[in-house]
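pasting for ref
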Amino acid sequence: MYTHNQATLETLEQLRAESIAAGGKEKKEAQHNRGKLTARERLHLLLDENSFEEFDALKIGHGGNIGDKKKYLGDGVITGHGTIDGREVFVFSQDFTVIGGSLGEAHAQKICKVMDLATKVGAPIIGLNDSGGARIQEGVDGLGSYGEIFHRNVRASGVVPQISCIMGPCAGGAVYSPSITDFVFMVEDSSYMFVTGPNVVKTVTHQDITAEDLGGAQMHAEKSGVAHFKMPNDVLCLRKIRQLFSYLPSNNQQKAPILDLSDSPKRTDPALDYLIPANSTESYDMNVVIHSILDGAEFMEVHASFARNIICGFGRLGGQTVGLVANQPAVLAGVLDNDASSKAGRFVRFCDSFNIPLISLVDVPGFMPGPDQEHGGIIRHGAKLLYAFTEATVPRISVIIRKAYGGAYLVMNSKHIRCDVNYAWPTAEIAVLGPKGAAELIYRREIAQAADPEQVLNQKMEEYREAFSNPFLAAQRGYIDDVIFPRDTRSHLIRTLQMLDSKRVDGPNRKHGNIPL
């Protein structure tokens, strides 16, 4: 009996060692030579020490119908659960040393298992992607397996946070799973995403392009907006995921954890009283306001390199996570364009899905004019942000810092679309148009007939500024709840968040709305 048990234990040890060995020493060294960590090393850095519990380490795929039929324990992906800062999270980490991390039926079944468990227990899902794509040897079995994952991504959306980290190749159908998730991380110089690769592009369009230029981290972070974060290496990327995780709740039934940074709610910043230039055409950096008001001046910006004329990200006020949306006057004067509207709209919807209050800091001269924007669908894209703010039922607060003109004023979380509390600085300008545009429209005949049209225009602009370049008219109408001293912004926001903590909103009886995608 003892001998039999001993043999069984030895078999288990041997199988586990084989699973851990994965593709072997040479392939692991090759991974390191490319500046990449192995699948297990990544999980070790991502999760709390000794917290990882693995599933299906001994699972084997059917090997396919053609080519190399060698079978590997684990089938090229490590799955299971662990903790980050003591909070449960489900993970999968694709192993490029095993058949290039390609996705076969067993591989997908392992991923689907942890996704199902994550939604069942209400814990986030983090996927570390490093895969050559669908396993060709398995034919339609491998291809169909992607559909099973996509289905679960959609079912989990808005239920538990989903984070994708691209740490190697991600091509073809494989790109759609990360794109459905809430946040996408990419590693510079070692990760890329595209539907069709450089070879196909060359065949179809006769255009030579590298994988990096076609779908690298920098391109997706700056141009396409697919990547929310780009990091220089695997280690910093995994640390960044842990930082993001600290701002998020585990599921849509919970609130984000409270973290006391010992920053007084009563703290003021007199420098804010003098931040806004006297000339309303001059710019300033909205980041100064953001870092001044948030706990510990800590702010985690999302999509930092994409559509930089609007700022989105997470911070804390009184220890509570908030989602912050702010126009950036230092970039394109803070105007709303197609990319900025889509970027902010998606961020607002994420915060609303996961009970994160929304703060908007408004300095917006309007929507970007021009045929490129109109032809690109600025009506449709601007409507996304309008829809997202209007739909949101979490606590919503806005602070009008300076310009709030036209339709952009309405879209940026105004009282008219049911923002809960609207504050304004004394420098706020709330109007249908900017002074120049308004004067040219209202007094066009008088200006045209004047001996010195420019002088008359300047005079009328000044009259318009005196009438509307302050927040007091809007405050008299009740569209602004209070005009506050800039130095007191932080304390007003914290106190208002406390008041709104028990906010409840009953929506209409419907399956879901139809956002203008």
